Every structure is written in structure tokens, then in C-alpha cells.
Amino acid sequence: MCGIVGAVAQRNIVEILVEGLKRLEYRGYDSAGVAVKQDNEIKRTRKVGKVSELVGALKAEPIDGFSGIAHTRWATHGEPTEDNAHPHFSNDKIAVVHNGIIENHEPLREALIKEGYQFSSETDSEVIAHLIEKERKTSSSLMEAVLSAVKQLDGAYGTVVMSMDDPDELVVARSGSPLVVGKGIGEMFIASDQLALLPVTREFIFLEEGEVASIGLRDVKIIDRNGNAVEREFEESTIQHDAGDKGTYKHFMLKEIFEQPSAITNTLEGRLNEESVIIESFGNRAPELLKKIQAVQIVACGTSYHAAMVAKYWIESIANIPCLVEIASEYRYRKSVVLPNALFITISQSGETADTLAALRLGKEKGFLASLTICNVPGSSLVRESDMAFMTRAGAEIGVASTKAFTTQLTGLLMLATAIAQAQESISKEDIASIVEELKHIPGQTTQILELAKRIELDAEDFVEKSHCLFLGRGDLYPIAMEGALKLKEISYIHAEAYAAGELKHGPLALIDHEMPIVVVANNDDLIEKLKSNMEEVRARGGQIYVYADEKCDIKGSDNLKVVKCQSGGNYTSAIILTIPLQLLSYYVAVMRGTDVDQPRNLAKSVTVE
Ligand code: M6R
């Protein structure tokens, strides 16, 4: 959840570290700090709040150095205070930044206190600094000390260590939290996400679980958890250079909403034939595996879980095989049944979500036929640990609220349902061709729907003073309603819930009065008449309804029913297209309420702790 940057160079690296933090701020943003080696001591500046606070402090009192580490924090242990902000020191000799959670920090802390170490924070992370300082006294190198120290840790860590006694060197260790090494000319960098380092390098090594690396000016030495040397080459990054910039948009979220036509074009590129899906898009083994599977199990969290729920409707209706869907944090901790010849699928924007990764590891032990991840980040843990990967190619998503990641996941999942049906010959060639036709139209239709932004901004005005909101949908639009409710609550802090519209009279109808806005998503499908009856039930009780509907739906506006008609695509792609008005609605409501749209309170982009 936190962001980490480090550098060893022959020039002042403070600006590089701070720029890296700015680019990582989406991961965590309650405090930030930097430490550099300067004149035989380690200088440190830490500030509560966003990276801009740290920038102000560094302007007022500059520090500089040729090697250093920096961190932006999302608090787990200890409130966001200056003392709890990273880097943490031990005896002014060791400085450490950490991402993750050390589960056995209490016994370690007690033992270290008994040995005379003084703690100055409430964090779990500080034990790492003291343990390394202790181990360094008896180790021949900083790397050996770090390896000995991390062997004593339970939990998750991505950590970078700087030592006063070890010039031109940083040592890093990874277990459960990603780290990437970047190479410059006579300088080397480290970060929790390659995005942080794109201004200085495009050559990266992704560290694997359990590895420890020593980073010098010109070389990187990697060992595994048993101390064996590991050889790995630098790889050229495929991420766009300007990925971390907002351009002329007011917020990353708005930029990312408007990037959806091109993001979806990228998702589709080279993966469709004239009238079919190229099954190998899901991996070389996909033709053979997708033919064999008899069931699908999907696990994911948050928005990605909503994508999984939509996929259930599609896989069961298009491919005609059972599809089970579960929240990863639940799946990983309960006994579940593995259906014969089942494919295990994870969906994740970041590829680093701790619960989803743990669920994948569990799934691999449980005897699934194979694993597939639908993911946006190349080289991420889910991609590396799955048998097959389908990259959504949405480009970097910085806004905490997931937008283009979701619609590209849905695009990939509709292709997957079709690819399974194709491999198993479970629907006709004509039906496959018709879905492929729908897929090809998504970029154009998303472009058209974005033209409704001004109209949706008008609806948003009605929500600004509200405290609660309901979202309704039926069929594959029910999970879209859930996603709409999640977007509204996470960025505008308005309490929002979603229901399958048929459930209304089983309880939630009691909530309806003239203060309650109800957002409905509607497609012109078999359920439209039933949905209209559900809306009548709401109207009769004074609720104010806002409908985002396919243009073919026969729904007329009235006093307490506002309708925005959209060209929403076909049978399946409506779910993708009708997501966009809900994203825009939440965005405008949040802007009008003055919340922090890109970095909403208490949240972080990449949830690498459980
Ligand atoms: O990176 P992931 O897709 O695995 O993240 C899962 C959730 O944390 C994420 O989808 C979250 O719910 C969204 N950012 C909310 O907009």
C-alpha cells in the first residue's frame, strides 16, 4: 500500500526520490519521508500529509546526497504522525523504508528493547531497522545482515535498507510486497512500482518472492532466501513514459474515464479475427485448456470482484459451464469444493492485491486444472505466478477509483466467455460472430457515451446534499449497479448500496422516501418490463429516480424520473457501456462535494496487505 523509492548515484538524488514519491502517491498518502547520506551522517525529513508537504519542508530546509531512500505511507500500525513516518532509523546507522505488515513485530520489539534498542515510533516497521543494525554487527556485509534479519520476520515486506557503514549500496528484500530495480548509467534505483522510475530509466529487474538484492552504482547482486546467487537480466519496460501525468485533466480519474475508448481498443488489438476470438490471446495452452474445462472459479476484490460477477452471467450464458465467483479474502480462509476440471481465474488491476494473490496460491495447491489471471500490470506477482495471463492493456491507472481497468477487464472477460464457447463449440458460429461484432463496437460506443458527460454533470447536482443512495440493476447490470455504488461511496463519501431490482420489496423498499435518490441502469433485454415495474414501486413511494438506459428502452421521463438514453451496445456489451455514466456521475458528485477524487480518504490504490 505504501510507496518506496531509493537511489544510489553520483549526483544529488533528492529530486529523483521526491518525483518518484509523487508518482507513487496513489498507493498511500498520509505521510511521507526521505533520508539521504550527507557528510558522514544520514539526514532525514518527514512530514504528515501528502508529498507536497514534504516538498515544502525540503524547500525550506534542503538536504542532498548521492544515495537515499524515500517512502509515502498508508498507515497500518500507528497513526499518521511524523514519528511514525518512514524512513525509520536504528542508532543513526541504519535507515529503513518498509511496505507490508510485520505480524510478529510485538515479540521482536520486546526482545530488542531488552537488548537496549530504543523505539521512537509505534510502527511494526521500526523493528526491521533495529534487527538489521543488530545483525550488521556480526555479519560480513549489509546483504548478509538483511538476509539474517528478514529470516526472523513473519508477514509481508518490501524493504529498502541504507547503512552508514556501507557506502554506495542499498540492500532490498522482498516478500509479499513488490520491488523493482531500475538501471541508469553509473546509477541504480529501486521502487515499489516501475512507474516511479520512468523519468530516469526504462530498464528493470523485478525481484521475486524471498529475494534479497544488493544495489551498487553499476551492478546488482541477487540472492534467494537460502542465500543462493540468482542471475537475472534487466528488461525493457513497456509502460508509456507519460503514464504518471494528468495532462490537461483536472483529475487522474477523469483522464482515465476519458481514456476508455483507447484503452479498450488496446485490449482488443490483435485478439479478434473477423468472426471469432483468437483463443491464444489467453496463452499458448489456452486452446487445449479452454476446450477441456468444465467449470470456472473466479476470485477477486473490490471493483475486480464486480467484473467477476458480470463474467458469471456471461460465462454461464455464453459458454454454458458453471462459474463460481468469490471475494478473495473470503475464499482464502474457508474450505471450498473444487469442481472437476475447473479453471481458476484471478482478476486484478494491480496484480499485487494480497488477498487475491493468496487465493491464487491456495488455488494452485487445491488441484485446479490451470490458473489464468486477467491483469493490467505486466510483470506483477499474479502474472508471474499464474499459468496463463491475459493483459488488459489499460495503461497505468493512478486514480484510486478503478475505471478503465474495470471496463478493460470486462472486455477481456467477454472475450474469454466467447473463447470458451468457441473452444467447446457450445454455441453457433453465427452467435460467436455476433458477440465479436459487439466487441468491435465498444470503443466507438464508449466515445459516444462520453459525449453525455455534461448531461450527467447536471444530474450530479441533485446528489451533492444527499447522504444515501440506492443503485438498481437486473441481470448482468446488477453487478454494474454494485460498481456504481462502490464508485459513489469511495470518492464522494455518500453511503450507497446496490440491489438486484427484484430484491427491492424484500426489505430495501422501506428506505425509499423523497430524500432517497435511486440510480437505475437498464438495458432493453428480457427483464426490462420487470425492471420498469420495480421503478414504479419506487416512484409510488416518492423516490427520485435517475435512469441510465439503452436508447431502445421504452422509459419516459417525468417529475421524479430523469432518463439519460445512451447507445449502449448489444446484448452483452451494454454492461460495459452503461458503466461509464455511473463513473461520470460519481466523479462529478465528488468534485461538487470537494472531496479528494484521486486519493480518497483512508484508501490506497494497491492493497498489498490483507
Ligand atoms: O488491483 P486490484 O484490482 O486487485 O484491486 C482490488 C480492489 O482493491 C480495487 O478494485 C478497488 O476496489 C478499486 N480501486 C475501487 O475503485
Write structural notes for this entry:
The model has no long low-confidence stretch (mean pLDDT 93). The chain starts with a strand and ends in a 17-residue tail after the last helix. The chain is globular and about 75 Å long. An eight-stranded antiparallel sheet has the order 3-2-4-1-10-9-11-15, covered by helices on one side. Strands 5-6-7-8-12-13-14 form a seven-stranded antiparallel sheet. It has a five-stranded parallel sheet with strand order 17-16-18-19-20, sandwiched between helices. Strand 21, helix 16 (477-492) and strand 22 form a beta-alpha-beta unit. By secondary structure, it is of the alpha/beta class. Helix 7 runs parallel beside helix 13 (404-424), helix 7 runs antiparallel to helix 14 (429-450) and helix 9 (302-319) runs antiparallel to helix 16. Bound molecules: 5-amino-5-deoxy-1-O-phosphono-D-mannitol (M6R). Residues 301-304, 348-350, 353, 356, 400-402, 486, 490, 607 line the site of 5-amino-5-deoxy-1-O-phosphono-D-mannitol (M6R). 5-amino-5-deoxy-1-O-phosphono-D-mannitol (M6R) binds next to helix 9 and helix 16.
